[in-house]
Structures are given as C-alpha cells and as structure tokens.
Amino acid sequence: MIVAVLLAAGRGERFGEDKTQVLLRGKPVWRWSCETYLAHPNVDGVLVVGSDSNLSAIQSASPEAIGHVLGGATRQESCARALAALPEGAEIVLVHDAARPFVSPSTISDVIRGVRAAGAAVPAVRVTDTIKEVRDDRLVTLDRSRLVAVQTPQGAKVELLRQAHAEATGEATDEMALLEAIGVRPEVVPGEFKNFKITTPEDLGRARALVGSGEHRTGLGYDIHPFADDADRPMWLGGVLFEGGFGLVGHSDADALAHAIVDAILGAVGLGDIGRHFSNTDPHWHGEPSSTFLRHAASLVRAEGWEIQHIDATVIAERPKISPRVEEMKVAMADGLGIRPDQVSLKATTNEKLGALGRSEGLAAFAVANLVR
Ligand code: CTP
Ligand code: MG
C-alpha cells in the first residue's frame, strides 16, 4: 500500500500567513496537490497533516482522505506524527509539501519507481543560478554542476523512514537528510520547475500567473444623497473635499460615490450592502469618513480570497464640477481600496436639468466593480 502524506501544518512565517489555505483559482493551495494524489492510480490513500488552526477546515474539505493528523512544531515532528498514524499495511510513504500545488502525476510515478529500486527517492532539479556561500565577509562560489534543488514528494519505504526518524539526532529540513544519516542512498529522479514551493508572497504571484484566476464577479452599486441647504455642510465626494459647502446630507460623510463603490464591491461577492455592515442608526458611524467603509469592504472581500481588479463609476449631478478633481478622487478611492489609481475609472454627467437630480436637489452615483479570485 502506498500512502501520500500531505504536510500542511506549517505557520507560513516567511509568507506572512497560512499559505496552505490561500486560494488559487478558488481552491486552497493544499487542495491542489491533494487532488493530484487522490487521482493517482498508484496511490492508495492520502493522509493530511494540519495545524490547530487549519485542521478542521482541511478535514471537512477532504472527506476522501484516509486520515487527518494534527502536526507538530517542526516539519520533522509533523512528519513523525504522520508516520505514527499510517494505516497498517502501508509499505511506501510519499511525503509532500502542501505548499507545492503543482506536483505532476509523472513525478509521483517516478518517485514510486525510485523507492522500489533504492528504498528511497527524491525529485530534484538542476540549479540554474550560480550559488554562492556567504562566509564571514566573502563569497565563495560553489560548483553549480554538482548542485541540485530537491523537491517533494520524498518517498521511502515506511520501515526505513521510521527507523531514520527514530535514530535522528537533530532537526532536518527534509526526510532525505534523515535517511542519508542512516546510510540510505536515495535515488534522485528528475523534478520539474513547476513543482516549486510557495514560500513567499512572490511565489504566490508566480502560482497565480500559472493557473490564472478562475472566478470573475461583477457587482453594481448605487447611492443617492440630497444636498444640504446649509453652507457649513462640507461637500465630500470620492474622498475629496469640495469648496463651498452645501454638501450632501447623510449619517456619515454622505459621500455617495464612495458608498456606491462599497456596494458594488460587496455586491460582487454577495456580502449584502453598505447598510448591513455600517448601520446608519449606529452612532459609531456618525460623520465617519468613507475611507473607513472602503477599507472595511475591501478587507471583507479579501478575506474571502477576492482581488479587486477594476472599478468604474459615474456621478450624476448638476454640481460640483468633477473633472478638475477627478485624478485626486481616483487616488483617494484607490487608496481606500488598496488598489492602484489606474484601476479606478471615474466620470460624471449632469442630468440635463431633468427631474430631482436636474433641479440640483441631490447627487447620485453608480459604480461597477470587477473582482477575481
Ligand atoms: N510544515 C508542517 N509542519 C510544520 C512546518 C511545516 O507540516 N511544523 C509543512 C508546511 O505546511 C509546508 C511544508 O511543510 O507545506 C514545507 O514547509 P515550509 O515551506 O517551511 O512551510 P512553513 O513552515 O509553513 O513556512 P515558514 O518556514 O516560512 O514558516
Ligand atoms: Mg518552515
């Protein structure tokens, strides 16, 4: 019996958060390789090792796994716990970093073949950069032709790997180091550059560039506020203060454009509308600048894996004149949303003196938001 052990119990310190849970085209990173192992004809079962913060989510999202184990403080400890939890009859174990989503079925097959031949096997790729060792104040160039970068799955006969763990003296960053220490000579099989490990946020960008984004959503937002007949009421629009008072009336700063954008973003993801998150009867939001709402809405959608790609909005009003301030407004809206100003498009039209807006009783705004994940 061949069992794949998926290690997903790390803390992702270099990444900044639990990278195994980050979504790649709508699917958490760990699930990508999990599905590859589940579908592999020679792999009989997958055992997933999670942390105390992600284990229950992983458990409910992988009912096909033969088991779920709580990992330890180090990768080695997580692996040891998996070895202790292997089902009886497991002969070969393939230990895989859940942070490597793009392992291919052929690499898995090659590692299995290598384990059968040599007791242990590991995929490796040649090193293409020149690697130098930093020794005190000087650099020592290593012989690149003798260097390889090893990946996972690291495969071994279960008994050998158990023995290697039992005899381990220190912490190793991979299984092969433990096996080498007890005299095993793992077979090196060809790895693939696409089987890279997501370690830093830059690696996630590379992963996203490979798979693209799967889900696209569009949201529509609309808001309208009456003008005050008070010269002291400030006129906030698009996060920018317009001179001359007679601003918009509302519980917060009444920035109808910012509110329409917030509704568009929330709407794209089905999170309701601005009133649900910032009640206009809650004194907490009284006079609150719209940047607070933008920031909060953006963080809500980001928490579900969405990225705001583009906003397009139109203001409908007889006044104020928007074109001279439009670049400033884009910068303010983009800043609140955590995106670039060129991802925000703003324009305005009068209502040709028609209706309430045409009589300058108020100002309305429409916004459309495009989100991807
Ligand atoms: N891992 C694990 N248990 C640990 C540490 C790591 O299961 N105690 C797993 C990680 O979840 C990851 C793989 O081992 O899938 C490779 O480790 P690494 O890239 O170092 O991930 P992290 O330890 O999470 O990252 P960092 O070292 O930056 O904190
Ligand atoms: Mg680590």
Q: What is the global morphology?
A: elongated
Structural class by sheet pairing and helices: alpha/beta
Mean pLDDT: 95
Task: Give me the strand/helix succession.
Answer: EEEHEHEHEHEEEEEHHEHEEEHHHEHEHE
What's the tally of helices? 12
State Rg: 28 Å
Weakly predicted, low-confidence segments: none
Q: Percent of residues in beta strands? A: 25-35%
Measured between the Cα atoms of the first and last residue, the distance is 37 Å
**Fraction in helix:** 25-40%
Identify the quaternary structure here.
Answer: single chain
Bound molecules: cytidine-5'-triphosphate, magnesium ion
* Largest sheet composition: 8 strands, mixed
- What's the count of strands? 18
Account of the 3D structure:
The mean pLDDT is 95. By secondary structure, the chain is of the alpha/beta class. Helix 3 crosses helix 5. Strands 1, 4, 5, 6, 7, 10, 11 and 12 form an eight-stranded mixed sheet that branches. It has a four-stranded mixed sheet with strand order 13-18-16-17. The protein has helices spanning 29-39, 55-61, 75-84, 105-118, 158-166, 175-181, 201-211, 256-269, 274-277, 290-303, 326-337, 355-358, and strands spanning 2-8, 23-24, 27-28, 45-50, 67-70, 92-97, 120-126, 132-135, 138-141, 148-150, 154-157, 187-190, 216-226, 235-237, 240-242, 307-316, 344-349, 362-372. It is elongated and about 85 Å long. Helix content is 31%, strand content 26%. The structure holds cytidine-5'-triphosphate and magnesium ion.
